[in-house]
Amino acid sequence: MINKLSSKDQNFDELLSSLTAWDYSSNEEIESTVKKIINDVIQKGDQSVLDYTQKFDSVGATSLSELLISKEKLKQSFDNLDEEQKTALSVASDRIRSYHKKQIQESWTYTEDDGSVLGQRVIPIERAGLYVPGGKAAYPSSVLMNAIPAKVAGVEELVMVVPTPNGVVNELVFAAAYVAGVDLVFTVGGAQAIAALAYGTETIPKVDKIVGPGNIYVATAKRQVFGQVGIDMIAGPSEILIICDGKTNPDWIAMDLFSQAEHDEDAQAILLCPDKDFISQVEESIRRLLPSMDREEIIRTSLENRGALILTKDIAEAIQISNRLAPEHLELSVENPEGIVDDIKHAGAIFMGKYSSEALGDYCAGTNHVLPTSSTARFSSPLGVYDFTKRSSIIMASKEGSKKLGKTASTLAYGEGLQAHALSALYRTDSE
User: Fold this and answer.
1) Is 24 helix (H, G, I), strand (E, B) or coil?
2) How far apart are CA 368 and CA 141, in angstroms?
3) Does 49 reside within a domain?
4) What single string gives the DSSP state of each residue in 165-201?
5) Three-class secondary structure of residue 229 per DSSP
6) In CATH, what number is assigned to the domain containing residue 325?
7) Sign of CA dihedral 65, 71, 72, 76
8) How many structural domains does the chain have?
9) Where are the alpha helices (DSSP H) in 307-398?
10) What is the pLDDT of residue 428?
């Protein structure tokens, strides 16, 4: 049902590497298909997006403007929710907004003794695109997590695309778009939607950056348009790694493993624990609880293929393994998480203590659930306000500063064989 390993196993490193390996790349056929779709959208604009939407999603619209969802419709979707859903969306959005406001960076300058001014301007991008999976695999939480940081950052216009295959509409997604302040919503998806956002069409405006999850075609399209626009990341399967000292309810741990395994068959759920008896208890909880899960088969496949219960020598070794794996979600289900958190070098999000389930971060803790996967937490961070801003350097040399710096600059420029650079700097050292 789930792999059981021990750090004492002779081939442990090889087994762990094999278990956690993931390849981001798509095959040549998908690459070629996506490239054609993008080129078609570049050349034919609206018509191409419409044709592919009719082909892949069985949408009967005759013009792309018919697939623009009005703000009145978004508000109506919110108004039609029951009170519990309204409250949940509102509470979650308020908490996410409050958290991300802490990330706002201010512009700054300083003046040197000679009157020269140096500094940095922090500027929001003008227009961002948000891709949201549609149909049955719709995630209103992803709308909140991607849209709210953009609006907090000061993005002027946020354009959302979401497919509605066979006309299947998720009202919660529209309601989330309303709550998050999305400006434009189009019911298109796939590689054609990514291409439209990247290059613009007659109806869909060109954006500066595209964020949001999608299938392999969407991920491939994001990779191919990168450079034309910015992207957030190419996300792999969802991951959870739990470090537990054996003092948490084993049912809680089992369900935390399930919470990521239920995403899809490629998701990864791993427990690291130095208590052999507790691992057996968790294994028993998995066997007992799994048949009651709506996504039993998905969870079962995920656990069998990529899940593991790993016996470690101690918590310190568990931390070492965790740092090696650099997980997307890391739970420190131990009595004193504050005492070990500083030893964690790589993790997308760290959930501290036995009461901090990963699911809270997915929906309403306030932190962002768009996190680096497949060990990219070694060099990447959660989505945030920072992803929707850019920085410009400020240089204003005074007359005195120009003379002083001009000599330094010219010396270095001549050293590089760049005469015009040197003279450009030296000209300003002469008297006017």
Assistant:
1) coil
2) 10
3) yes
4) GGG---HHHHHHHHHHT-SEEE---HHHHHHHHHH--
5) strand
6) 3.40.50.1980
7) positive
8) 3
9) 315-325, 358-363
10) 87
Cβ contacts of residue 246 below 8 Å, gap of 6+? 273, 274, 275, 277, 278
Distance set, CA 77 to CA 65, 132, 153, 161 (Å)? 19, 16, 26, 16
Q: Could you tell me how many residues make up the chain?
A: 432
Q: Specify the pairing of strand 268-273 against strand 389-396.
A: unpaired
Together in a domain, 76 and 208: yes
DSSP of 310-321: EE-SSHHHHHHH
pLDDT given for residue 326 in this prediction: 97
Structural domain boundaries, residue 423: 399-427
| Angle of CA points 335, 336, 341, to nearest 5° | 130
Instruction: Tell me, yes or no, whether 154 and 34 share the same domain.
Output: yes
Residues serving a catalytic function are: 328-329
CA distance 126 to 249: 48
Give the integer Cα–Cα distance in Å for 182 and 194. Answer: 17
Instruction: Identify whether 391 is part of a domain.
Output: no
Distance from C-alpha of 401 to C-alpha of 396, rounded to nearest angstrom: 9
- What are the two backbone dihedrals, phi and then psi, of residue 40, each rounded to the nearest 5 degrees? -65, -40
**Residue 392 maps to a domain:** no
Q: What are phi and psi of 54, to 5 degrees?
A: -65, -40
**Residue 155: what residue type?**
V
Q: How confident is the model at residue 137 (pLDDT cuts 50, 70, 90)?
A: low
Same domain, 316 and 198: no
Sheet with 3-6: strands ordered across: 3-6, 308-311, 268-273, 239-244, 329-333, 349-352
Identify the band that residue 305 occupies on the pLDDT scale cut at 50, 70 and 90: very high
Q: What is the pLDDT of residues 42-51, one digit of tens each?
A: 999 999 999 9
Distance CA 384, CA 381 (A): 8
